[in-house]
Amino acid sequence: MRIGLSYDLKDRVPRDVAAPEDYLEEYDSLETIEGIARALEARSHSVVRLGGGKEFLVSILQGTVDLVFNIAEGLGNYRSREAQVPSVLEMLDMPYTGSDPLCLAVCLDKPLTKSLVALAGVATPKWQVVNSASQLKETDWRSFPIPAFIKPAHEGSSKGVRLASRAVSSAQVAEIAEKLLEHYRQPVMVEEFIAGDEVTVGIVGNSPPQVIGIMRILPKKKTDYFVYSLEVKRDWESLVDYECPARLESSILKSITDSALTAFRALGCRDFARIDFRVTPDGTPYFLEINPLPGLNPRSGDLPIMAGKMGWNHGTLISAILDAALRRCQRCLTQ
Length: 335
Ligand SMILES: Nc1ncnc2c1ncn2[C@@H]1O[C@H](COP(=O)(O)OP(=O)(O)OP(=O)(O)O)[C@@H](O)[C@H]1O
Ligand SMILES: [Mg+2]
Fold this sequence. Notes:
Layout: E1 2-6, H1 30-41, E2 46-51, H2 53-60, E3 67-70, H3 84-91, H4 101-108, H5 110-119, E4 127-130, H6 133-138, E5 148-152, E6 166-167, H7 170-184, E7 188-192, E8 197-204, E9 210-219, H8 230-234, H9 236-239, E10 240-243, H10 250-266, E11 272-279, E12 285-291, H11 302-309, H12 314-328, H13 330-333
Parallel strand pairs: 1-2, 1-3
Antiparallel strand pairs: 4-7, 5-6, 5-7, 8-9, 8-11, 9-10, 11-12
Bound molecules: adenosine-5'-triphosphate (ATP) and magnesium ion.
């Protein structure tokens, strides 16, 4: 097959001088694109690099591909940015890997995602959204559980998430929220801070979706509390250990698996996703957020690291995502 690869490279994203210093964090590196292309070519497909933004629009209109392997994060500060590329592909009736525009847009909105997941019966930390500085001034945080964690409502890759995002007083909640509102130019979510183990769950496939691994993220140095913050993600090799399969009791692993699959289905995800939880000392997994376009960097992506520890190499993971999409697409199977 001729497979198009859609992506947004860090160094091709338009500069935005008003954006915070971490605004390129979610975009991809050439290493990731080359890793995916290599995996697809190893299966005898030819790969066309479509890029992102206007370059993607021009190249997709050449009509030279049969299916698109999509990892484009989308452009701008819009909460629906991950839906941009799949929306164009649906307009052109072009099959692609991964979730559809509705799912991708919903999942970048953390509060909206939490409402749907909670409705499906999955535990998630208490939360409250602040839309503006004036709303923040009118809010009394004294009845909100402390410690609290404050993050931008529509971000990923730990943008806006630091060790200092944890507040231990209501005054601190207001202080952190005010700064985020100003810098990230979007609503802010205040969440109950969940102390306990950090785990991330990989899912691949559709009928049925399969949990391919549950990975615990452990700080190398013991601290009072752990946050898988931007500082940690940028220096993961020296700061954390990844344990996969997570050495947790089988009943806890079962609750994490059930919660992850319930969330994947409730949100209408397809082909693959990675879901983050915090597990309380009593063994309850609390859903934090879901990534229907998780990072696929062969060396540093959490999903590829997890897959590697479960005995899959990067090529096996990319192949499994492609196969999940192909099984949904009758037309592709006959090509
Ligand atoms: N309510 C919370 N309680 C405790 N820790 C939290 C909470 N919310 C976020 N964190 C910490 O901050 C990290 C980043 O938060 P979150 O996963 O929501 O951000 P993200 O930017 O969407 O992440 P990703 O890089 O996975 O896309 C979590 O992995 C966790 O360590
Ligand atoms: Mg996360």
